[in-house]
TrEMBL record:
It comes from Branchiibius cervicis. SUPFAM superfamilies: Homeodomain-like (SSF46689). InterPro entries: Homeodomain-like_sf. Residues 49-73 are annotated as: Disordered. This is Helix-turn-helix domain-containing protein.
Length: 164
């Protein structure tokens, strides 16, 4: 459904007054992405009405140091155990008041102990054998408390190249 210029102006005014894009999309019978394009002026500029400021996607937005939650070693180990047990990362994150991406960083070794948890030669051989037998990399990641990407690197012999 194409909006008239008057409807575009009314939509922009309602957004400027605080209406949510998703609510405006429902009200006007268009997609939320279309509302976003209209209120920021990516489309229908000539229709008039107030335009919302477009965020600069490339501007750096570092989080203040005080906003980063510091997890104790016990909490980090709890995250690893819960992920290994198959619990959903979003649920773990909600329980601990952190983002799902922080969970991913802990599991991959980018955050937590400062160093990746090394695997023994026996574990590497077990991982490769299980993958060759058809166990999914995702399942292996859960079993070993790491990420699928780490398992992939092990299986493809990108890492632990010395283990035969």
């Amino acid at each position: 459904m194409a909006l008239s210029d008057a409807e575009v102006v009314r939509l922009r005014e309602r957004y400027a007054a605080g209406a949510r894009q998703v609510d405006l999309a429902t009200e006007f019978g268009i997609a939320q992405t279309a509302v976003s394009a209209i209120v920021t002026g990516r489309t229908r500029v000539a229709a008039g009405g107030p335009l919302a400021a477009r965020p600069d996607r490339h501007a750096p937005r570092p989080a203040p140091a005080s906003s980063r939650k510091v997890l104790s070693p016990g909490q980090i180990e709890q995250v690893r155990r819960r992920v290994a047990a198959g619990e959903k990362r979003t649920e773990i994150a909600a329980d601990l008041g952190i983002s799902r991406y922080t969970i991913d960083s802990i599991i991959s070794g980018r955050r937590g102990s400062g160093a990746r948890k090394p695997f023994s030669g026996d574990q590497i051989r077990q991982i490769r054998a299980a993958a060759a037998a058809g166990t999914s990399q995702t399942q292996l990641a859960r079993d070993y408390g790491t990420s699928q990407q780490v398992i992939s690197q092990i299986v493809r012999r990108v890492t632990y190249t010395d283990v035969t």
